[in-house]
Structures are given as C-alpha cells and as structure tokens.
Amino acid sequence: KDLVLLMNHLKVEKYKAVGYSRGSIVLAKLLTEDDRIEKAVLGGMGIDFTNPEWDRKIMFANAFKGEVNQFTKGAVDYAKSINADFRSLYLQQKYQPVTSVKELNELVIEILVISGTDDLDNGSAEDLKNSFVKGKLEKVPGDHNGTYKTEAFSNSIIRFLE
Q: Which residue from 62, 113, 135, 142 could staple onto 146, CB 3.0 to 4.6 Å apart?
C-alpha cells in the first residue's frame, strides 16, 4: 500500500519493480493490485509462497516467537546479531501476503524470476516462472544469502529491465 500511495503521490503512470526474498512475495501481491507495473523481477523466490500453509513461513514465524529449530537457528542468530525486532519479524512472517498461482497466471507483463544455482530454500524457481504468461528464468551463481550480491545478478536484472 505504501508503494501504491507513493506512486500515486509522484503521479507515476508506469514503473518497473524488483523484489528479493520477502520483497518478491510482497511484489507478487502488488502485481495483482497495480496495473502500472510494466515489468517485474522476482528474485530469491520459488513457487512455495503461493501456498497459504507454506511450512517454511510457519516455521520461521514460530522461530521468531521463540520456537527455534536446526533450520531456523541461523536466521534467529543473525537477527539477534543485528538487534532485529523479533515481534516485527514474527508478524511479517505470520501475515506475509499470499498470492495464488491462479492470480499469477492472470499477469500478462514480462516477469523475470532470478535465482541462485544453490538457492533451493523457497521452492522451484522454474515452477514460479511457469506460473506467468510471460515468465523468464535466470539462474546465477550463489545461495539465497549471496546471490543478490553478485555482479551476475545485477547484470541479469539490468539486461531484463532495459
């Protein structure tokens, strides 16, 4: 809603948008609500976020309210190291938007799904790409926490958005 209000305030008629990880999840929902987006990039995300009962989403929500396990320990430790607000992280996970595959199937703009070759945390990037009429997939070196820091990632996005 903040983005829509900002674009309205700036009187932007068309724009391109890029999201990564949770940003991709939020952007997917925005794509169903704002027809001014002419191209989009969803990075670091596979198809799993389309499931409202996504086990990873629930597991991380629980972790940020104190139920840490071997899969969530690293994220919790990192959040502690930067003094993150655990209540906020919990609520972001719990109330993260869900966009159905049916909604994604209705999008007709070009959408690039970009994923690290070692990023398998969030489901199939190929399946996510296939859920779009004009979906493209690009794989670049890296895992979920490293892919977006690479030159290959940046160059792929720039090429796509030009």
A: 142
Q: Which residue has the tokens 């309210």?
A: 65
Tell me the DSSP string of the chain: -HHHHHHHHTT---EEEEEETHHHHHHHHHHTT-TTEEEEEEES--GGGG-TT-HHHHHHHHHTTT---TTTHHHHHHHHHTT--HHHHHHHHHT-----HHHHHT--SEEEEEEETT--TTS-HHHHHHTSTEEEEEEESS-TTTGGGSHHHHHHHHHHH-
- Contact present, 47 and 121 (Cβ < 8 Å): no
Q: What is the pTM of this model?
A: 0.91
| Third-level CATH fold of 15-52+100-162 | Rossmann fold (3.40.50)
pLDDT in tens, 4-37: 999 999 999 999 999 999 999 999 999 999 999 9
